[in-house]
Amino acid sequence: MNFHIITLFPEMFDSYLGESILARAIKEKKIKVNFVNPRKFVSGKYRKVWPDGNVSLQIDERPYGGGPGMVMMAEPIIKAIDSIVKKLEKKKTAKTLIINFVPSGEKFTTDFAYKTTKKYTDVIMICGRYEGIDARVDKVFKTKKISIGDYVLTGGELPAMILIDCMARQIPGVLGNFDSREESRVSSSEIYTRPEIFEFPTTKNGQIKSKKYKVPPVLLSGDHKKIENWKLGKK
Questions:
Q1: Do residues 106 and 193 both lie within one domain?
Q2: Of 19, 96, 183, 207, whose CB has the highest number of CB atoms within 10 Å?
Q3: Cα–chain-centroid distance for residue 153?
């Protein structure tokens, strides 16, 4: 699976992709993550070269119709997507999905992640900033609008990391044991490990008392059917 991230801040991904399971998946070439900075495609009056040699690349503009904040312009984003799509067109086997993160989009789920890894080879993710992205991006390229929750974030980088993480887990070989995926097992919000009895001192009314916290007896029973029912909340 190949992930293509369109972002103004590719360095935000360094620590997350450089550790643990994702770092190993990249090293073993189970997944590949590429970055495209839309500033690279800024042109015309929005690309200014100052007398001291510094270059400023403006990627946002005021929205028509008024309103607070700035909006990412269509051209740099469209050209960034197009640069990726043209490369993928040379790969006749590439199947591409373009994702645009918006609060009103379809809620992201593990099921969506699983189906995406089965249907597509390449996923392009647009990380918006400011007040959003010019709507004409979606008119030039058909995008899948996705939301990770009913809240607004500063940018699309965190949602992109979440999707990469969740989708990577659906790819055989990324996890040491594919069946160790929590989503593929009977799971509970409660989980316990050794020791069987954990003791911790608590203070009440100035007195220190030691309280014992025990593992539920059903988990020690060895009865797998009862254990599965307990995890499902069944008595």
A1: no
A2: 96
A3: 13
